[in-house]
Amino acid sequence: MRKYFLSASLALFVGTTAIGATAMTAPVQASEIRYIVNNMPITSADIQHRNAFFRLQRRKGDAANEMIEQTLRLAEAQRLGIRISDKQVNDAYARFATGNKMQVAQLDAIMSQSGVTRQHFKEFIRSQLAWNQALGARYRAEQSGAGLSSQQEAVRNMLKKGGTKPSATEYMLQQVIFVIPPAERKSTLAKRKREAESLRARFNGCANTQQFAKGLLDVTVRDLGRILAPQLPPEWADQVKKTRAGGATGVRETERGVEFIGVCSAREVSDDRVAELVLQNENANAGADELGKKYMDELKKKAKIIQR
Q1: Cβ(72)–Cβ(242) under 8 Å?
Q2: Which of 54, 72, 162, 171 has its CA 20 to 30 A from that of 37?
Q3: What is the structure's pLDDT at 122?
Q4: Which residues form the signal peptide (predicted)?
Q5: Residue partners of 76: CB distance under 8 A and separation at least 6
Q6: pLDDT recorded at residue 300
C-alpha cells in the first residue's frame, strides 16, 4: 500500500500544479498569527503564500483551511513517528522541476516571483509525503482490523470480474549499500559514489557480490528475496523494471549512504499472491479519497483550532 499512496501524493503536486510562465510577484505584507492549531501557529504570510500557490495552479481554494489541514497532517505524521527528510523533499522538488522541463534554479525563481516561495512549496511537498505514509498506515490498520480476504477469495473476486489470473514480474533482488556515517557525509560522499559506481560496473549477477565487496570498507550486501513488481518500493521501482536480470540499477544517494540494487533474476508469475496484491491495489484506489477525508475529519474534530 505504501507504493499506492506515494504515487497518489506525487500526482497531486506534479499532475495538478500547472506552472504559469507569467506569474506576478505578490506584494510583501507584515506577518501576523491568524490561527493556532494544536499550539502550532499559522501566519498571514503562510496564507498569503498558499493563495499565491492557488494562482500559480490557476484554481480557487480556501487558503486558511488548507494551511490548517497541512498543519494537522504534519502533526499526525509526527505522532506516528513518520519523518520526511530534507533530502526526500529536495529530491521531490527536483523531480517536479524536471517534470516541468526546467532546472531547479528556474523553479526557485518562479516560486519567488509568484509569491509562493521555495520554502512554502517544499513544506507542502513534505506534508503530502508524510500524509501518504499516514494514510498507508491507516489503510493497513483498517484492513487488518476488518480481516483481509484469503488468497483464494482474492482469486475468486478477480475471476468474477471476467479476467484470468493476473501476472506480475517476480524479482530476486540484492541491495548493495555503501554506508556513510552522517558526520562524514560531506567529506566522503564523492569518494563513496566512485566506489559504488566501480562495483556496479563489475556487477554481473548476485553470486559474486559478497566476494567483490569483501575488500571494501563499510559495504553491506542484503539479499532481499522474492519481491513482486507491485511490492517494489517506489523509489526503486522504475529503475528495477528497466534493469535486465544480472544487471544493476544506477547508484543513488539515500539516508544510509549510496546504494544500488542488483537484479538477480526476473520472471513472470501468475499465482494467488499476485491476484491478492492486484485486488488490494484496486480496493485502495477506489477508497483512497474517502479514507483521506474521513481521517482529516477525525483530526479536525480532535484538534484545538483558535482563530486570532
Answers
A1: no
A2: 54
A3: 96
A4: 1-23
A5: 131, 134, 299
A6: 96
